[in-house]
Amino acid sequence: MTTSRQIALSCLMIAAICLAADGALHDALAQNPFGGSRAAPDAQVGGIVGWLLTKQSEFYRQMSSTIRAAKADGSAVWTLLAISFAYGIFHAAGPGHGKTVISSYLVANEETARRGIALSFVSALMQSLIAVLIVGIGAWLLNVTASTMCGAERVIEIASYALIAAFGIRLVWTKGGGFIRALRSSYGRSGPRLAPVLANAAALHSGHDHHSHDHDGPGHHHHDHASAHATVVHAHGPGHAHPHDHHHDHDHDHVHDEHCGHSHGPEPAQLAGPGGWRRGLSAVFTVGIRPCSGAILVLVFALAQGLFWAGIAATFVMGLGTAITVAAIAVLAVSAKGLARRMTASREGSGALLMRGIEFGAAGLVLLFGVGLLFGYVAAERVTCF
Amino acid sequence: MRTLFSAVLAVLKAAGVDALMRRLINLLSASVVLAIGAGTAQAHPHVWVTAASELIFAADGSITGVRHAWIFDDMFSTYALQGIATRKKGVYSREELAPLAQTNMESLKEFAFFTFARVDNKKQKFADPIDYYLEYKDAALVLHFTLPFKVPIRAKQLALEIFDPSYFVDFSLQKKDPIHLVGAPANCTLAVQRPSDGTTIAQKLNEDTFLNGANANFGAMFANKISVDCP
Q1: Which domain holds residue B7?
Q2: Residue B195 needs a FRET pair 20 to 30 A away by CA distance; which of A135, A224, A277, B187 works?
């Protein structure tokens, strides 16, 4: 694999991340009620988003009347559960519910689709449990007002955003190391000062680069390095001793490119080893600590109707629906990464670099998302207390 | 962003990256963008408000404020009443609801009372709300309050919008006579555009009347747009 391609690839990865961040920021800015003018948004209301919104609203609004009906006719509880399940499925396609965090976590780490499904279900279960606990303790046990409960929700919300950001920092820290190591082993370990010069040389003489694969041909080697050396001389403008030095370095570099591309980045087997579940639990906790405001409203309403148990059942069924959607998205993310790995499998050096780059990007996404939520740049389903 | 992207593409071409790589990269960047897009996808409402509002005119023909009556949906009404002590079960007097109304006013301030007024594309400021109270009627909470303009509006045209930019609250105008002009000069006309039907009730005005800036966000798609013309 040639160095020039690796440069291009890393450039693209950065561009992709920038593009994504740019898009996220635009979305975030669009939330500002006093933001600048944008294109007429009517086109968006239709389409999938509009349909999802309509469906969710329909299901959600049916819940209150169904709970009321269940007071007189117990069989309406089954209708309630069916509606809650459908609502959960549709609702999770919207913001919150940890799709971004869970999917990014799975991509950042060498996780399996199976574990992605498990994480989605456990975090949805935790979300439901927290909602039941808040209403159970707050409204049922202590009979506090809605604004007190909502205040508690807000505190949890902020804590959860901070947790996402902290989780992101940790992921970026660990994944950044792997990414830098992959970069180093691709570009050579000839020292930080020389690396860009060598990269530059290779980029300028990409026509010759394909020869560098032929390790055993000394003639080829000579040819290749002669051209690289010319550039180096231009860049440094040193005396005679240098070209020889560079020749040596370059040679060394290629050995590493072929053999160290893999061993320097973390192996999949290492990552999915023991302790993986504990790591996964931090993802679950980060996501699951924040309850869905819809569930809290349903629970309080059910409690007021004297059907708290029906509200609890509805909440858990809702969580089940949510888990299915989140799991589907998580599996999609993991398969996309698997596809990327298969497509780059034949290119050892750059393949590893690309995979580390994707992981680093996913880690950065979690951090960006957490910080965005914390400072209000990304409006998730915010808790509105009034 | 576009320039950076084309620069990267140029580097790519120069470097001779083959088709497979490019396809792979497209796929990856698309999935990243998709993931972010899904992450920042917009909320859906948890609270429904049926609004009826009045525009209050002074004797000199200027508009002094907006008086709202917002009916909350069944579920939210019940939720909001949680933990409020009453003398008689299920009956809430205005006095018993006064602390909640106070909380409402304090909290809604953060959201600019979901009421946005513009004259010549300039945002108009409201003073703190007055005459606010809650009543419990037909198993629903109704929030009454008046937002006085800091400076009474003397312009020929006022554009008013009622909506939640984050769409946590869905506002819909009351079906019949949602907006009243109180004490308005005889030549004033009113136009109301609801978000869902996409048609204006009074056909006097076209889309340009409404300020383009108001479309700046997602919730605005669900905005109720009111325009008052006093030529």
Answers
A1: 2-39
A2: B187
